[in-house]
Design goal:
By secondary structure, the protein is of the alpha/beta class. It is about 40% helix and about 15% strand. The strands form 4 sheets. Strands 3-10-4 form a 3-stranded antiparallel beta sheet, sandwiched between helices. It has a 3-stranded antiparallel beta sheet with strand order 8-5-9. A two-stranded parallel sheet has the order 1-2.
Length: about 300
């Protein structure tokens, strides 16, 4: 009987010891190895990456930022050369991303939280000279097309497209609808903004590919073209408000389990991102200073993500 009591007491003590230990939601993993975050070409993506990296550093990780092009970086993710990319516009992922996703070389962690738009825009004054706007059929009107034409595109109108390495469906959609336009890639985001500002100032007709959120839309009044019908609903032939998600290398969860949970929880609002873009691109503040300030001012938002992953 005494032996049974002793054994029962030991069992009860062991059970109590087990149940009293804190349950870790995830191990922190390989803190000595840096988490390499993609730094894509546009300011919003750089803001998202830096904020994600600074939050991961609060959890004890090392963050590195890898400059990368939008299309090429998906192969870097698949190979593990890039650990994570936290602002993927799913309507503009090219041919590589669907293949590496299907092959389970990358993993989609869900939404970043941005409210988005994408499509064709024009300076608002153009409605005075192309009164059929915002209908896409205005772009079939010879008078309107003539206003958009340049020596390099005659007899077609010029359509200002995304930089070539961003990828775009504009040329395909123009061809699908037999529009008399020629898509001309821009050199950079900065070049696109310069053209939009110049068009507004000089009242020069312009139609271009663009997206929201973006701070320039608070500076220049634009119209959004009611898009032509889609040949099909694929990203190649159709422009719809895109989802913006977070993607990681397939080995990420195994190597950095807590970081994986943190990035799954990571969110950034459109309003906050646009304010930071304005501070960087218009007011000349540094990316590091602006994102550091956001992290310091929003601990109530991101601290629960860390607590849930680490405690």
């Amino acid at each position: 009987m005494l032996k049974k009591c002793i054994n029962a007491g030991i069992s009860a003590f062991a059970l109590a010891a087990l149940t009293s230990e804190p349950i870790m939601a995830a191990d922190i993993g390989a803190v000595g190895d840096p988490i390499k975050l993609a730094m894509l070409e546009w300011t919003g993506a750089q803001i998202s990456a830096q904020i994600a990296g600074k939050i991961l550093e609060k959890a004890g990780y090392k963050a590195e930022y890898v400059t990368a092009g939008n299309y090429p970086h998906f192969q870097g993710l698949a190979d593990g050369e890039i650990s994570a990319s936290v602002e993927i516009w799913l309507n503009n992922v090219g041919e590589v991303y669907p293949k590496v996703l299907e092959a389970e070389k990358v993993e989609d962690l869900g939404t970043l939280g941005l409210t988005t738009n994408e499509g064709w825009i024009y300076p608002k004054f153009m409605e005075e000279i192309c009164p059929a706007l915002p209908s896409w059929e205005a772009l079939k009107d010879p008078a309107c097309v003539g206003l958009l034409a340049t020596p390099d595109t005659l007899p077609n109108g010029r359509f200002l497209d995304y930089p070539a390495d961003w990828g775009s469906r504009a040329a395909t959609i123009i061809a699908d609808n037999n529009l008399p336009l020629t898509a001309v890639p821009s050199g950079s985001e900065g070049a696109m903004l310069a053209e939009l500002r110049a068009a507004e100032a000089a009242r020069t007709p312009l139609v271009m590919m663009f997206w929201a959120p973006h701070f320039i839309l608070a500076e220049v009044e634009v119209g959004w073209i009611d898009m032509p019908p889609c040949v099909d609903q694929s990203n190649e032939h159709c422009i719809m408000p895109p989802d913006v998600n977070k993607v990681v290398w397939s080995g990420f969860a195994g190597k950095w389990p807590a970081a994986y949970e943190i990035l799954k929880s990571f969110r950034l609002s459109t309003e906050d991102q646009q304010k930071m873009m304005l501070a960087i691109d218009e007011k000349g503040q540094s990316l590091d200073a602006v994102t550091t300030a956001w992290v310091e001012e929003n601990e109530a938002l991101w601290r629960p993500w860390l607590d849930a992953a680490l405690n």
